[in-house]
Amino acid sequence: MTITAAADGSALGNPGPAGWAWYVDDSCWDAGGWKHATNNQGELKAVLELFRATAHLDEDLLVLCDSQYVINSVTKWMRGWKAKGWRKADGKPVLNLELLQEIDAALAGRRYRFEWVKGHANHPLNEAADARARAVSEAYQRGGTIPKGPGFVRAGTPAVPASPAAPVAPVAPVAPVAAPAAGAASREQKPAVRRAVAAPPARAAHPELFSFDDDHDAAPAAAVHEVSLVLSAEQHARLSERATRLGVSVEDALRALI
């Protein structure tokens, strides 16, 4: 049988109060988080805890994920990073190293594949994971009780709790964005290989959108032009939400739309 689960992360302010969650159904899910972390850290931790919670099962795992960063890290970039001593093509250290190394260890011997799903598009499993991750981040923000799931629970299978949350390295503060001016406008055949992964969707529409942590040598820009833009409060809020979902800065999210 194939276990199908969604994994998602949330960070208010990115970085800020953060949560992670994986979800199979209402009786089989888990969540956790930190007082301060990034959205990408939440996304990675959700995948890590999903693999840990299902490690005792000899079944294929289908991971539904709305993060291109996570999918590319696991299916495309990780092997090259390891070969370079966990450094990127430009020689800089890989971000979120501890979480990535833990995921790499958790994948050993597992049969799995990733499938990208569009976030906030009414996909039931993704929406359920997103809601639980955000509930954790909001609980940390207001100092409330942290929501906790039952773990991996299925008929005849004992619950497997998530591992304790490891400390997350402090995240460098993000420069504030200037406020807008007042008044401005069934059992499946098991694969022969150890790992089976699905390639992420094509990036033709906005190739630069997903290159923020890629392991390739980017061509130098011919020129840089500085542009000032005034947004209404509503427009800035929508742009900030988009940047948080993508795990990039507000400036990068805006640049990707050009």
Give structural notes:
The protein has six helices and five strands. The protein has helices at residues 39-53, 68-83, 97-107, 124-142, 233-246, 250-256, and strands at 2-11, 16-25, 28-37, 60-65, 112-116. α1 (39-53) runs parallel beside α3. It has a single domain (2-256), classed as 2-Layer Sandwich (Nucleotidyltransferase, domain 5), CATH 3.30.420.10. It is α/β, with parallel strands linked by helices and 258 residues long. Residues 171-226 have low confidence and may be disordered. It starts with a strand and ends with a helix. The relative contact order is 0.19. A five-stranded mixed sheet has the order 3-2-1-4-5. Residues 1-138 form the RNase H type-1 domain. It comes from Cryobacterium algoricola. Its EC number is 3.1.26.4.
What would you say about this model in short?
By secondary structure, the chain is an alpha/beta fold. 32% of the residues lie in helices and 16% in strands. The relative contact order is 0.19.
